[in-house]
Design a protein that fits this description.
363 residues; alpha/beta; Rossmann fold; six-stranded parallel β-sheet; two-stranded antiparallel ribbon; globular; pyruvate
C-alpha cells in the first residue's frame, strides 16, 4: 500500500494537498503542535519533581492528532485516546483545564477521579478518556451510529494506538461499522510500540490500514509526521462519512519518541539509534520549514511564538498549583440525584472523622 505524503522529511512540498488550507489554519496547526510539545516537556518534568503523579507523552506524534482534528467540523465528535492533547487543544480545551486535570485539583471537571491524561469535555464533543485499551473504539461507533439514526450531519473520529488493533474491541467495531456503513473515522496512531511490544510482534499484516479490506471499507496509510497529508486523509474520510459512504480506517505512521508513560523505561526494549533516526523526521521541524519556505513564518516570529507559549504554560501552572485539592466530601456526589440514607450516614461519619483529625492536629 502506498503512503499518502505531501511533505518530505525536510518540509519540502512533494505533492500539493488535495484541499486548500488557509494560511491562518496552517499557522494555528503549527502553534498547536508547539503547544503540545512544550506541554509534554513541562508535564514530564513536573512528574519527575513529584508535582503530578503520572503522565503520557506524545512527543513526535503531534502532526497525527493536530492534522486530523483540524480537518473536522465543530459538530463532529472526537473520541480520544490518552495521547492526543493537541486534538483537545485544537477543539478548544483550555490549558487551565488540562493542567487542573493533571493535578486533580478543585478546578478539575472530573473532580480528581480520573488518572492524569484522562480528560474530556462534553461541551466540546470530546469524549472522556479511559485506560483500558481499545474500549473507546466501539463506543465511537455507537455514537456515529446514533448520528446516522437521528440523521445528523456529523461524523465521529476515534483515536487509538497500534496496540489496540490486537484487541477484540477493534475488530468488533470495524465489523459493525462496515456492515451498517456507520459515519466513523478510525484513526490508528501507529507509533510502532504497544508499551514494549513492537508492531511486528502484533500483526503479520504489511500495514494496519490493510485490515479495513476484511470489513468492506477503505484503509489509508498516511505519513503521520506530515500534518498536510493527515489533514487530507481525514477530511476525505469525513466527507465520505457525511455522504453516507461509511467508515474509513486511517493508519498514521509515526513514532513514539518518548517512553510509553512516566512509569516506563524504553531503553529496555529499543535502541537509541532508532529514536535518533525518527528525530530527523520531526513533524514540528518539517512544518516549520514548510511555513518558512512559504514566507508564512519567520525565525523571529517563531522565537516569539515559542516564548509566548512557554510563558503561558508556566503562568497556568503557577495559577493551578495554588488551587486546593478536591474536597473529600465530593466522593458522595454525582451518583444519585438524592443521596440514599446509608450514604448520608457514611458521609456524616467521614466528616466527623476528618474534623476530629483536624482538631487533634491543631493542638
Amino acid at each position: 500500500m502506498n503512503m499518502l505524503q505531501c511533505l518530505d522529511d525536510s518540509g519540502t512540498i512533494i505533492r500539493e494537498p488535495a484541499y486548500h488550507i488557509e494560511d491562518a489554519i496552517l499557522l494555528k496547526q503549527y502553534k498547536t503542535m508547539l503547544l503540545s510539545r512544550f506541554v509534554d516537556d513541562r508535564m514530564f518534568k513536573m512528574q519527575r519533581q513529584g508535582r503530578i503523579g503520572f503522565y503520557l507523552s506524545s512527543t513526535g506524534e503531534e502532526a497525527t492528532y493536530v492534522g486530523s482534528a483540524s480537518a473536522l467540523e465543530e459538530r463532529d465528535w472526537i473520541f480520544l485516546c490518552y495521547r492526543e492533547p493537541g486534538a483537545a487543544f485544537w477543539r478548544g480545551l483550555s490549558l487551565n483545564f488540562f493542567v487542573a486535570q493533571m493535578m486533580g485539583n478543585a478546578n478539575d471537571l472530573t473532580k480528581g477521579r480520573q488518572m492524569p491524561n484522562h480528560y474530556g469535555a462534553r461541551a466540546l464533543k470530546l469524549s472522556s478518556i479511559s485506560s483500558p485499551v481499545g474500549t473507546q473504539i466501539p463506543q465511537a461507533v455507537g455514537c456515529a451510529w446514533a448520528s446516522k439514526i437521528l440523521k445528523k450531519d456529523e461524523t465521529t473520529l476515534v483515536y487509538f494506538g497500534d496496540g489496540a488493533t490486537s484487541q477484540g474491541d477493534f475488530h468488533t467495531a470495524m465489523n459493525f461499522a462496515g456492515v451498517f456503513k456507520v459515519p466513523v473515522i478510525f484513526l490508528c496512531r501507529n507509533n510502532q510500540f504497544a508499551i514494549s511490544v513492537p508492531l511486528e510482534h502484533q500483526t503479520a499484516a504489511l500495514t494496519i490500514a490493510d485490515k479495513a479490506v476484511a470489513y468492506g471499507f477503505e484503509g489509508i496509510l498516511v505519513d503521520g509526521n506530515d500534518v498536510l497529508a493527515v489533514y487530507e486523509a481525514t477530511r476525505k474520510a469525513a466527507e465520505k462519512a457525511r455522504n453516507g459512504e461509511g467508515p474509513t480506517l486511517i493508519e498514521a505512521l509515526t513514532y513514539r519518541r518518548g517512553a510509553h508513560s512516566t512509569s516506563d523505561d524504553p531503553r529496555m526494549y529499543r535502541k537509541d539509534e532508532e529514536v535518533l533516526k525518527w528525530e530527523k523526521r520531526d513533524p514540528i521541524q518539517r512544518m516549520k520549514n514548510y511555513l518558512l519556505g512559504r514566507n508564512l513564518l519567520t525565525e523571529e516570529e517563531n522565537a516569539r511564538f515559542e516564548k509566548e507559549i512557554q510563558e503561558e504554560i508556566m503562568s497556568v501552572i503557577v495559577m493551578e498549583e495554588k488551587i486546593p485539592t478536591v474536597p473529600v466530601s465530593s466522593l458522595f456526589d454525582d451518583v444519585y440525584a438524592e443521596l440514599p440514607s446509608n450514604l448520608k450516614n457514611q458521609k456524616e461519619y467521614l466528616m466527623k472523622v476528618l474534623q476530629s483529625s483536624k482538631n487533634n492536629s491543631s493542638k
